[in-house]
Design a protein that fits this description.
The chain has about 160 residues and is an alpha+beta fold. The protein contains five helices and six strands; from the N terminus they run E-E-E-E-E-H-H-E-H-H-H. The strands form two sheets. Strands 1-2-3 form a three-stranded antiparallel beta sheet, with no helix packed on it. It has a three-stranded mixed beta sheet with strand order 5-4-6. A hairpin with a 5-residue loop joins strand 4 and strand 5. Helix 2 crosses helix 3. It is elongated.
Length: about 160
C-alpha cells in the first residue's frame, strides 16, 4: 500500500479489525520509510446494478442519491443522519436480495416510502407528495387517509 504522506511503496499492517457493520476491514498501517501511520479500509467490490427509469433511461444505482432523497424528505425534522444512512443501507440490501442487475425506479421509490413511513410520518408525506406527484388536495388527503388507516391497523 502506497503511503499517502511520502508516496513510498511499502507499509506494514499494525492492526486489523472489522467495522461495526462487518462490511469492511479497517487496517491501521505504518509506512516503512517515513514511519507515519494511516488507516485503510478493505471491502468487497459490489456489482453495480442499473436503475430503469420511467422514461426508459438506465443509470447506475447511487446510494448517495438515495441518502439525498431521504435527507430532503426529512429536512427540518429531528432525525439523525445515521438513521437515514442505515435506512439507505437497508433499502439497498433489500433491493440487492431481490434484484440482480436492474431495478425499476418505482420499486426504489416504494421502498423509500416504506422506510420513511417507519421513520417519520411527516417525511413520508413529503416524499409521497413529490414521488406520487400530487396535483391537488384530494390526492394529498387520500395519502393521509391511507397513512392513518395503516397506522391504526393492529399489525403496525
Amino acid at each position: 500500500m502506497r503511503c499517502p504522506f511520502c508516496q513510498a511503496d511499502d507499509s506494514k499492517v499494525l492492526d486489523s479489525r472489522q467495522t461495526e457493520n462487518k462490511m469492511a476491514i479497517r487496517r491501521r498501517r505504518e509506512c516503512t520509510a517515513c514511519r507515519r501511520r494511516f488507516t485503510t479500509y478493505e471491502k468487497y467490490e459490489e456489482l453495480t446494478f442499473m436503475v430503469a427509469k420511467k422514461d426508459g433511461r438506465r443509470e447506475a444505482f447511487s446510494q448517495t442519491k438515495l441518502i439525498a432523497g431521504l435527507t430532503k424528505a426529512c429536512e427540518k425534522r429531528p432525525i439523525p443522519l445515521y438513521v437515514l444512512e442505515d435506512a439507505a443501507l437497508n433499502i439497498e440490501r433489500e433491493l440487492r436480495d431481490v434484484y440482480e442487475w436492474e431495478i425499476p425506479s418505482q420499486v426504489i421509490g416504494e421502498a423509500v416510502m416504506e422506510k420513511l413511513c417507519q421513520i417519520d410520518e411527516i417525511a413520508y408525506i413529503r416524499f409521497a407528495s413529490v414521488y406520487r406527484q400530487f396535483t391537488d388536495v384530494q390526492k394529498f388527503t387520500e395519502e393521509l387517509d391511507h397513512l392513518l388507516k395503516r397506522k391504526n391497523t393492529p399489525e403496525n
